[in-house]
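so my prof wants the structure for this chain in the tokens format not the other one, which i didnt know existed until like an hour ago. anyway here's the sequence
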Amino acid sequence: MDFDPTITSYPDIGDRAFGTSGRILVSIFMTLELYLVATGFLILAGDNLHNLLPDVNFEFWGLGIGGKQSFVLIVALLILPTVLLKKMSILAYVSASAVLASLVIIGSIFWAATYDGIGFHKSGVVVNWGGIPTSFSLYAFCYCAHPVFPTLYTSMNKQKQFSKVTNYFDQLVHSTHQNS
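here's what i got, hopefully its the right format
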């Protein structure tokens, strides 16, 4: 992308490597991947919210919507407006609020463990084998951001600093996994 400014996306790379059929194939796989990641996110959010609030049920125009399906619909309706944004820079604030929410949750866990008498000294199961599929899906979801790299690169004011950004986030992800 540094040497040819006409390449701005993965389909452009597919086109350069394999022609029009490469562009079409890469576009299909990228679109399919993004669709499946969004579907996975909705399922993950619905499952986790249902685990937190198992008794939530809604009735809408005489149609009963219960459990996981209701949370999938709620999350989809909350996320839908972000697709309609004209300036994608607003999503940075959404992302920052997610980081803040994660910090609040981690702080709440440590507060409860330290000051509310729950403590870290309780015995328990070292590995929750039933949680492996959920944790695997969380890790897979975290690594599915690569389709946005060409867009980020072309959107940056100082494109020469792109490698610094990716290296920073790579170190951040690896330090997070080592601490877990």
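also thought this was worth mentioning. The mean pLDDT is 76.
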